Amino acid sequence: SKVGILGIPFSKGQPKGGAEMGPEILRRAGLVSRIKRFDYQVVDHGDIEIESIPGDKPDGNVKNPRSVGRANKKISDKVASIVKSKELCLNLGGDHSIAIGSIHGHCRAEPGLVVVWVDAHADINTPLSSPSGNMHGMPLSLLVKELADRFSPVEGFDWCKPCIHVRDIVYIGLRDVDEGERWIIDQFGIPAYSMQEIDKMGIKEVMHHALKNLDPNGTRPIHLSFDVDGLDPTITPSTGTPVLGGLNIREGQYIMEELANTGRLSAIDIVEVNPLLGSEKDNMVTAETTISVIEKCFGSKRGG
Ligand SMILES: N[C@@]1(C(=O)O)CN(C[C@@H]2CCCCN2)C[C@@H]1CCC[B-](O)(O)O
Ligand SMILES: [Mn+2]
Ligand SMILES: [Mn+2]
Ligand SMILES: [Mn+2]
User: Fold this and answer.
1) Where do runs of H (alpha helix) occur along 129-248?
2) Cα–Cα distance measured from residue 87 to residue 155, given in angstroms and rounded to the nearest whole number
3) Which residues line ligand 1 (CB under 6 A)?
4) 206 CA to middle of ligand 3, Å?
5) How would you write the pLDDT of the chain (304 residues) with one tens digit per residue?
6) Which of 56, 59, 62, 261 is the most exposed place for a label (fewest CB within 10 A)?
7) What ipTM does the predicted assembly reach?
């Protein structure tokens, strides 16, 4: 089977320069050759061309709306075509706002998909609830049908129709959730396994229940959106919004092994690697950890 790799050197969903270097650092650390080890044919689509939009003033409190909107329209088009050509679409971010386009595009090719969101954060602030105005904290709010009537369309997103339901999402790794996000999660009953549930139930039970709730018949394509800040900052230090008490490397690997076992992984985002925020050593640790976790999506077995 085939993996289509798409670099997305984009960072305007948040204020820290360097997130646009994520694709480069992961490629340089050998991600492509690691995937090639597990009888996947790798199609490297290179990097998406990111246009800069001068004078991109905030829309309300939303920062860089036109830049984020323009980039994500392109991402949606590209991801749709990669999935339609039967490649497992591996998107290398870039900040987490790229998930707007990647999930939108994936839905165009696989309308029945479900979303596994591995992250310290819920990333479901609406433009009105966001404390920062940074769009990397908003992607899911622009994608779920149930929130469409809660805010007016953001400048640059007229192309973006919500395409998933809140019940098609499961969170794993939460430990820094804003008040407005908490309200949305409770209001709509979004299944959320925070680090507290993971400590209480263990990752085995969390994955069993998460997948069972999400897709009881085990038939739906899976979109994994993996924010490296879901892992503990001691193992992924080079990231923009680190939060103590995260997933350890074995929990991360186990999550991916269970997803690989479904045989239904259809698109993967790897986001929020920022090599400008760490030392050389931090960057090496972050890249190696990320690759050793992500390779488990492609059938790498710890037992050989
Ligand atoms: N919810 C947030 C938002 O800005 O919307 C607020 N938070 C930072 C804030 C710092 C002070 C203590 C409370 N948290 C970052 C998060 C977005 C993370 C985006 B991701 O892609 O990295 O997950
Ligand atoms: Mn995060
Ligand atoms: Mn049980
Ligand atoms: Mn995120």
Assistant:
1) 179-188, 195-201, 203-214
2) 32
3) 96, 119, 121, 123, 125, 130-132, 134, 136-137, 176, 178, 227, 229, 240-241, 272
4) 8
5) 999 999 999 999 999 999 999 999 999 999 999 999 998 999 999 999 999 999 999 999 999 999 999 999 999 999 999 999 999 999 999 999 999 999 999 999 999 999 999 999 999 999 999 999 999 999 999 999 999 999 999 999 999 999 999 999 999 999 999 999 999 999 999 999 999 999 999 999 999 999 999 999 999 999 999 999 999 999 999 999 999 999 999 999 999 999 999 999 999 999 999 999 999 999 999 999 999 999 999 999 899 8
6) 261
7) 0.96
Atom number in ligand 1 closest to CA 133: 4
- Local structure of residue 64 (DSSP, 8 states): S
Instruction: Pick the catalytic residue from 87, 215, 227, 251.
Output: 227
Single out the residue of 225, 101, 98 nearest to residue 173, CA to CA: 225
**Global confidence as pTM:** 0.98
Question: Is residue 45 flagged as an active site residue?
Answer: no
Instruction: Return the residue whose CA atom lies nearest to atom 5 of ligand 1.
Output: 137
- Burial category of 165 from C-beta neighbours within 10 Å (exposed 0-12, middle 13-18, buried 19 and up): middle
Q: Which amino acid is at 110?
A: E
- From the CA of 125, give the closest atom in ligand 1: 5
Torsion 87-172-203-190 (CA) sign:
negative
Per the listing, tokens 């690759």 go with 291
Helix (H, G, I), strand (E, B) or coil at 38: coil
The residue contributing the CA closest to ligand 1 atom 19 is 137
104 flagged as catalytic: no
Catalytic site residue 136? yes
DSSP-derived 3-state class of residue 271 = strand
Q: Which two tokens stand for residue 19?
A: 């997130």
- Residue type (1 letter), 71: A
